[in-house]
Amino acid sequence: MVGPDLDTIKMSLSQSRQHPQVTRFCRQFLQVEHLLDFPDDDLLRDDAIQEHLYERLFAGHAAAFPPPPRYRLRVLKELVAKIESCITDWDKHGISENLMSTLSGMLSQPLPSEMTAVQQKSYVTYPLSTMQQGGFEDAQITLLESRSLISASGTTGLRTWEASLHLGQYLCANPSLVMNKRVLELGAGTGYLGILCAKYLGSDHVIASDGSDDVINNLPDSLFLNGLQGSDKITPMELKWGHALLGTEDQAWNGGDEVNVVLGADITYDASVIPALVATLGELVGLYPGVVMLIAATERNRETFQSFLHVCERRGFTVSHEIFPVPSKSEQQGPFYNDQTPIHICQLGYTGSGR
Questions:
Q1: In this structure, which long-range contacts are made by residues 87-95, counting pairs with CB atoms below 8 Å and at least 24 apart in sequence?
Q2: Contacting residues for 139 by C-beta, under 8 A, at least 6 apart
Q3: pLDDT digits (tens, 9 = 90+) for 245-271
Q4: Are 158 and 214 a contacting pair, CB within 8 Å?
Q5: Quick check: 265 and 308 in contact, CB under 8 A?
Q6: β strands within the chain, DSSP E
Q7: At residue 42, what are phi and psi to the nearest 5 degrees?
Protein backbone atom coordinates (compact mmCIF):
# COMPACT_ATOMS: atom_id res chain seq x y z
CA MET A 1 0.00 0.00 0.00
CA VAL A 2 1.37 3.42 -1.00
CA GLY A 3 0.88 5.90 1.81
CA PRO A 4 -0.19 9.52 1.41
CA ASP A 5 2.45 12.21 1.04
CA LEU A 6 3.50 14.36 4.01
CA ASP A 7 1.43 17.41 3.02
CA THR A 8 -1.70 15.27 2.69
CA ILE A 9 -1.08 13.75 6.12
CA LYS A 10 -0.61 17.20 7.70
CA MET A 11 -3.83 18.47 6.13
CA SER A 12 -5.78 15.39 7.21
CA LEU A 13 -4.40 15.64 10.74
CA SER A 14 -5.51 19.26 10.97
CA GLN A 15 -8.99 18.37 9.75
CA SER A 16 -9.29 15.34 12.06
CA ARG A 17 -8.54 17.41 15.14
CA GLN A 18 -11.56 19.54 14.34
CA HIS A 19 -13.98 16.74 13.44
CA PRO A 20 -16.82 16.68 16.02
CA GLN A 21 -16.98 12.87 16.18
CA VAL A 22 -13.24 12.55 16.78
CA THR A 23 -13.26 15.33 19.38
CA ARG A 24 -16.22 13.76 21.17
CA PHE A 25 -14.59 10.31 21.25
CA CYS A 26 -11.34 11.73 22.68
CA ARG A 27 -13.21 13.67 25.37
CA GLN A 28 -15.23 10.61 26.38
CA PHE A 29 -12.07 8.50 26.59
CA LEU A 30 -10.30 10.95 28.89
CA GLN A 31 -13.43 11.15 31.07
CA VAL A 32 -13.25 7.34 31.35
CA GLU A 33 -16.77 6.89 30.01
CA HIS A 34 -17.92 3.28 29.93
CA LEU A 35 -19.87 3.59 26.66
CA LEU A 36 -17.97 5.45 23.97
CA ASP A 37 -19.27 6.90 20.71
CA PHE A 38 -16.69 5.66 18.20
CA PRO A 39 -16.29 7.75 15.01
CA ASP A 40 -17.99 6.50 11.84
CA ASP A 41 -16.31 3.90 9.63
CA ASP A 42 -15.18 6.37 6.99
CA LEU A 43 -13.34 8.31 9.69
CA LEU A 44 -11.79 5.25 11.33
CA ARG A 45 -10.41 4.10 7.97
CA ASP A 46 -8.58 7.38 7.50
CA ASP A 47 -4.82 7.05 8.14
CA ALA A 48 -4.47 10.56 9.54
CA ILE A 49 -7.35 10.12 11.97
CA GLN A 50 -5.86 6.87 13.24
CA GLU A 51 -2.59 8.68 13.83
CA HIS A 52 -4.40 11.51 15.56
CA LEU A 53 -6.15 9.07 17.91
CA TYR A 54 -2.80 7.45 18.66
CA GLU A 55 -1.10 10.79 19.38
CA ARG A 56 -4.02 12.14 21.39
CA LEU A 57 -4.87 9.07 23.46
CA PHE A 58 -2.34 6.22 23.36
CA ALA A 59 1.16 7.58 22.74
CA GLY A 60 3.43 7.67 25.77
CA HIS A 61 3.29 11.47 25.85
CA ALA A 62 -0.43 11.67 25.01
CA ALA A 63 -1.80 12.62 28.42
CA ALA A 64 -0.09 13.74 31.58
CA PHE A 65 -2.76 11.92 33.60
CA PRO A 66 -4.06 9.02 31.48
CA PRO A 67 -7.00 6.72 32.27
CA PRO A 68 -6.22 3.43 34.07
CA PRO A 69 -4.38 0.66 32.15
CA ARG A 70 -7.28 -1.81 32.01
CA TYR A 71 -9.54 0.85 30.56
CA ARG A 72 -6.96 1.96 27.98
CA LEU A 73 -6.41 -1.63 26.87
CA ARG A 74 -10.14 -2.33 26.55
CA VAL A 75 -10.74 0.75 24.44
CA LEU A 76 -7.68 0.20 22.25
CA LYS A 77 -8.69 -3.41 21.54
CA GLU A 78 -12.19 -2.27 20.58
CA LEU A 79 -10.82 0.56 18.45
CA VAL A 80 -8.47 -1.73 16.51
CA ALA A 81 -11.25 -4.28 16.00
CA LYS A 82 -13.59 -1.58 14.67
CA ILE A 83 -10.92 -0.28 12.29
CA GLU A 84 -10.26 -3.79 11.02
CA SER A 85 -13.95 -4.52 10.47
CA CYS A 86 -14.57 -1.31 8.53
CA ILE A 87 -11.71 -1.73 6.02
CA THR A 88 -13.00 -3.14 2.74
CA ASP A 89 -9.99 -2.38 0.54
CA TRP A 90 -6.68 -3.25 2.16
CA ASP A 91 -4.79 -1.80 -0.80
CA LYS A 92 -6.10 1.64 0.11
CA HIS A 93 -6.38 1.43 3.90
CA GLY A 94 -4.70 -0.26 6.81
CA ILE A 95 -4.35 -0.17 10.58
CA SER A 96 -1.90 2.26 12.12
CA GLU A 97 1.38 0.59 13.03
CA ASN A 98 1.56 2.82 16.07
CA LEU A 99 -1.83 1.61 17.32
CA MET A 100 -0.90 -2.03 16.64
CA SER A 101 2.51 -1.83 18.35
CA THR A 102 0.95 -0.06 21.34
CA LEU A 103 -1.69 -2.77 21.60
CA SER A 104 0.97 -5.51 21.44
CA GLY A 105 2.96 -3.76 24.14
CA MET A 106 -0.04 -3.37 26.41
CA LEU A 107 -1.04 -7.02 25.94
CA SER A 108 2.44 -8.11 27.02
CA GLN A 109 2.33 -6.09 30.25
CA PRO A 110 0.82 -7.46 33.47
CA LEU A 111 -2.37 -5.70 34.54
CA PRO A 112 -3.96 -5.43 37.98
CA SER A 113 -6.85 -7.78 38.54
CA GLU A 114 -10.33 -6.42 37.97
CA MET A 115 -10.97 -6.56 41.72
CA THR A 116 -7.81 -4.54 42.42
CA ALA A 117 -8.51 -2.09 39.60
CA VAL A 118 -11.99 -1.29 40.96
CA GLN A 119 -10.48 -0.33 44.31
CA GLN A 120 -7.80 1.92 42.82
CA LYS A 121 -8.22 5.60 42.09
CA SER A 122 -8.23 6.75 38.48
CA TYR A 123 -7.41 9.98 36.70
CA VAL A 124 -10.58 11.38 35.16
CA THR A 125 -10.44 14.45 32.92
CA TYR A 126 -13.68 16.39 32.46
CA PRO A 127 -13.79 18.55 29.32
CA LEU A 128 -15.40 21.95 29.77
CA SER A 129 -16.87 22.32 26.29
CA THR A 130 -18.71 25.56 27.12
CA MET A 131 -15.50 27.20 28.33
CA GLN A 132 -13.57 25.89 25.31
CA GLN A 133 -16.06 27.59 23.02
CA GLY A 134 -15.64 30.77 25.06
CA GLY A 135 -11.90 31.03 24.49
CA PHE A 136 -10.37 28.58 26.98
CA GLU A 137 -9.16 26.09 24.34
CA ASP A 138 -7.81 23.53 26.79
CA ALA A 139 -10.39 24.04 29.53
CA GLN A 140 -10.70 20.85 31.53
CA ILE A 141 -10.62 19.59 35.11
CA THR A 142 -8.58 16.50 36.01
CA LEU A 143 -9.35 14.64 39.23
CA LEU A 144 -8.09 11.50 40.93
CA GLU A 145 -11.27 9.62 41.74
CA SER A 146 -12.51 6.44 43.32
CA ARG A 147 -14.73 4.91 40.63
CA SER A 148 -16.37 2.61 43.19
CA LEU A 149 -19.54 4.21 44.53
CA ILE A 150 -18.62 4.35 48.20
CA SER A 151 -15.22 4.31 49.86
CA ALA A 152 -14.25 2.04 52.74
CA SER A 153 -15.07 4.81 55.22
CA GLY A 154 -18.59 5.15 53.81
CA THR A 155 -18.16 8.52 52.10
CA THR A 156 -19.47 9.16 48.59
CA GLY A 157 -17.23 12.21 48.21
CA LEU A 158 -14.33 10.58 46.37
CA ARG A 159 -15.97 10.68 42.95
CA THR A 160 -17.73 13.41 40.98
CA TRP A 161 -21.49 13.00 40.75
CA GLU A 162 -23.90 14.11 38.04
CA ALA A 163 -25.35 17.07 39.94
CA SER A 164 -21.88 18.64 40.26
CA LEU A 165 -21.36 18.37 36.51
CA HIS A 166 -24.82 19.78 35.78
CA LEU A 167 -24.49 22.67 38.23
CA GLY A 168 -21.08 23.34 36.72
CA GLN A 169 -22.68 23.63 33.28
CA TYR A 170 -25.28 26.00 34.71
CA LEU A 171 -22.54 28.20 36.20
CA CYS A 172 -20.63 28.17 32.90
CA ALA A 173 -23.81 29.43 31.22
CA ASN A 174 -24.34 32.04 33.98
CA PRO A 175 -20.81 32.99 35.10
CA SER A 176 -21.90 36.30 36.66
CA LEU A 177 -23.38 34.30 39.54
CA VAL A 178 -19.90 33.54 40.88
CA MET A 179 -17.58 35.95 39.05
CA ASN A 180 -15.82 38.30 41.50
CA LYS A 181 -17.75 36.62 44.32
CA ARG A 182 -16.66 34.78 47.45
CA VAL A 183 -18.05 31.26 47.23
CA LEU A 184 -18.68 28.57 49.84
CA GLU A 185 -19.31 25.05 48.56
CA LEU A 186 -20.94 22.54 50.89
CA GLY A 187 -20.06 18.88 50.38
CA ALA A 188 -17.23 19.69 47.97
CA GLY A 189 -16.28 16.06 47.36
CA THR A 190 -13.59 15.87 44.67
CA GLY A 191 -13.51 19.65 44.37
CA TYR A 192 -14.93 19.87 40.84
CA LEU A 193 -17.16 22.92 41.40
CA GLY A 194 -14.65 24.77 43.53
CA ILE A 195 -11.91 24.28 40.94
CA LEU A 196 -14.27 25.39 38.17
CA CYS A 197 -15.13 28.61 40.02
CA ALA A 198 -11.56 29.39 41.09
CA LYS A 199 -9.78 28.54 37.83
CA TYR A 200 -12.25 29.40 35.07
CA LEU A 201 -15.17 31.47 36.35
CA GLY A 202 -13.33 34.29 38.07
CA SER A 203 -14.45 33.83 41.68
CA ASP A 204 -12.53 35.97 44.16
CA HIS A 205 -12.21 33.07 46.59
CA VAL A 206 -13.70 29.62 47.08
CA ILE A 207 -14.05 27.65 50.29
CA ALA A 208 -14.30 23.96 49.37
CA SER A 209 -15.87 22.50 52.50
CA ASP A 210 -16.79 18.96 53.47
CA GLY A 211 -17.54 17.04 56.63
CA SER A 212 -15.38 14.02 55.72
CA ASP A 213 -11.74 13.82 56.77
CA ASP A 214 -11.02 11.59 53.75
CA VAL A 215 -12.41 14.19 51.39
CA ILE A 216 -10.53 17.10 52.99
CA ASN A 217 -7.28 15.10 52.90
CA ASN A 218 -7.77 14.37 49.19
CA LEU A 219 -8.63 17.92 48.09
CA PRO A 220 -4.96 19.06 47.91
CA ASP A 221 -4.39 16.37 45.25
CA SER A 222 -7.26 17.79 43.20
CA LEU A 223 -5.86 21.30 43.52
CA PHE A 224 -2.39 20.13 42.46
CA LEU A 225 -3.72 18.38 39.35
CA ASN A 226 -5.31 21.65 38.25
CA GLY A 227 -2.46 24.02 39.02
CA LEU A 228 -4.08 25.48 42.14
CA GLN A 229 -1.70 24.16 44.78
CA GLY A 230 -0.77 26.97 47.13
CA SER A 231 -3.27 29.29 45.46
CA ASP A 232 -5.08 31.87 47.55
CA LYS A 233 -8.10 31.44 45.25
CA ILE A 234 -9.36 28.27 46.95
CA THR A 235 -9.17 26.85 50.47
CA PRO A 236 -10.26 23.41 51.75
CA MET A 237 -12.21 23.54 55.01
CA GLU A 238 -13.83 20.97 57.26
CA LEU A 239 -17.45 21.89 57.90
CA LYS A 240 -19.94 19.52 59.51
CA TRP A 241 -23.60 20.32 58.90
CA GLY A 242 -25.71 21.02 61.95
CA HIS A 243 -22.69 22.08 64.02
CA ALA A 244 -22.42 25.72 65.02
CA LEU A 245 -20.19 27.84 62.79
CA LEU A 246 -17.69 29.04 65.35
CA GLY A 247 -14.75 31.37 65.02
CA THR A 248 -12.17 32.14 67.70
CA GLU A 249 -12.32 34.58 70.58
CA ASP A 250 -10.68 37.18 68.31
CA GLN A 251 -12.37 36.43 64.98
CA ALA A 252 -15.76 35.53 63.59
CA TRP A 253 -16.25 32.36 61.56
CA ASN A 254 -14.15 32.34 58.37
CA GLY A 255 -12.11 35.20 59.78
CA GLY A 256 -15.09 37.47 59.30
CA ASP A 257 -14.70 37.32 55.51
CA GLU A 258 -17.84 37.69 53.42
CA VAL A 259 -19.57 34.82 51.63
CA ASN A 260 -21.66 35.88 48.63
CA VAL A 261 -22.66 32.53 47.15
CA VAL A 262 -23.30 29.08 48.66
CA LEU A 263 -23.19 26.07 46.33
CA GLY A 264 -24.11 22.45 46.95
CA ALA A 265 -24.44 19.51 44.57
CA ASP A 266 -25.77 16.04 45.31
CA ILE A 267 -25.93 16.79 49.03
CA THR A 268 -29.61 15.93 49.53
CA TYR A 269 -29.46 12.20 48.71
CA ASP A 270 -29.76 11.09 52.36
CA ALA A 271 -32.96 12.19 54.11
CA SER A 272 -31.40 11.71 57.53
CA VAL A 273 -28.87 14.54 57.02
CA ILE A 274 -31.25 17.06 55.43
CA PRO A 275 -32.30 18.73 58.74
CA ALA A 276 -28.63 19.31 59.64
CA LEU A 277 -27.90 20.63 56.15
CA VAL A 278 -30.81 23.08 56.24
CA ALA A 279 -29.85 24.18 59.76
CA THR A 280 -26.41 25.10 58.43
CA LEU A 281 -28.01 26.97 55.52
CA GLY A 282 -30.09 28.88 58.05
CA GLU A 283 -27.01 29.83 60.06
CA LEU A 284 -25.25 31.00 56.89
CA VAL A 285 -28.21 33.24 56.01
CA GLY A 286 -27.99 34.72 59.50
CA LEU A 287 -24.30 35.49 59.02
CA TYR A 288 -24.61 36.70 55.43
CA PRO A 289 -28.02 38.24 54.67
CA GLY A 290 -28.61 38.32 50.94
CA VAL A 291 -26.31 35.38 50.22
CA VAL A 292 -27.26 33.50 47.03
CA MET A 293 -27.81 29.76 47.57
CA LEU A 294 -27.83 27.24 44.71
CA ILE A 295 -28.41 23.56 45.39
CA ALA A 296 -28.32 20.93 42.62
CA ALA A 297 -30.21 17.76 43.54
CA THR A 298 -30.39 14.56 41.53
CA GLU A 299 -33.86 13.11 42.00
CA ARG A 300 -32.96 9.46 42.53
CA ASN A 301 -35.73 9.14 45.07
CA ARG A 302 -38.81 11.39 44.90
CA GLU A 303 -39.53 11.07 48.62
CA THR A 304 -36.03 12.21 49.59
CA PHE A 305 -36.24 15.26 47.34
CA GLN A 306 -39.69 16.11 48.75
CA SER A 307 -38.21 15.78 52.23
CA PHE A 308 -35.60 18.40 51.32
CA LEU A 309 -38.31 20.77 50.05
CA HIS A 310 -40.44 20.18 53.16
CA VAL A 311 -37.60 20.85 55.60
CA CYS A 312 -36.66 24.01 53.68
CA GLU A 313 -40.24 25.28 53.89
CA ARG A 314 -40.45 24.49 57.59
CA ARG A 315 -37.22 26.40 58.27
CA GLY A 316 -38.39 29.50 56.38
CA PHE A 317 -36.77 28.95 53.00
CA THR A 318 -38.45 29.39 49.65
CA VAL A 319 -37.26 27.15 46.82
CA SER A 320 -37.41 28.23 43.19
CA HIS A 321 -36.45 25.88 40.37
CA GLU A 322 -34.11 27.21 37.73
CA ILE A 323 -35.01 26.17 34.17
CA PHE A 324 -31.94 24.27 33.00
CA PRO A 325 -32.80 20.77 31.77
CA VAL A 326 -30.22 18.02 31.48
CA PRO A 327 -29.17 17.78 27.81
CA SER A 328 -29.55 14.43 26.11
CA LYS A 329 -26.42 12.30 25.89
CA SER A 330 -26.32 12.82 22.12
CA GLU A 331 -26.18 16.60 22.62
CA GLN A 332 -23.52 16.59 25.32
CA GLN A 333 -20.03 17.67 24.28
CA GLY A 334 -18.46 17.33 27.70
CA PRO A 335 -18.67 16.82 30.50
CA PHE A 336 -20.77 13.70 29.92
CA TYR A 337 -23.34 12.51 32.46
CA ASN A 338 -26.58 10.57 32.87
CA ASP A 339 -29.56 12.12 31.09
CA GLN A 340 -32.18 9.71 32.44
CA THR A 341 -32.52 11.05 36.00
CA PRO A 342 -33.85 14.58 36.66
CA ILE A 343 -31.43 17.05 38.24
CA HIS A 344 -33.04 20.05 39.92
CA ILE A 345 -31.17 23.32 40.33
CA CYS A 346 -32.81 25.10 43.23
CA GLN A 347 -32.26 28.67 44.38
CA LEU A 348 -33.11 29.19 48.03
CA GLY A 349 -34.49 32.39 49.47
CA TYR A 350 -35.16 33.10 53.13
CA THR A 351 -38.42 34.52 54.49
CA GLY A 352 -37.44 34.49 58.15
CA SER A 353 -40.70 32.78 59.12
CA GLY A 354 -39.32 29.29 59.80
CA ARG A 355 -40.16 27.21 62.77
A1: 87/45, 90/1, 91/1, 92/1, 93/1, 93/45, 93/46, 93/47, 94/1, 94/47, 95/50
A2: 127, 128, 131, 132, 200
A3: 987 666 789 988 999 999 999 999 999
A4: yes
A5: no
A6: 121-127, 140-146, 182-186, 205-210, 234-238, 261-265, 292-298, 317-321, 343-350
A7: -65, -25
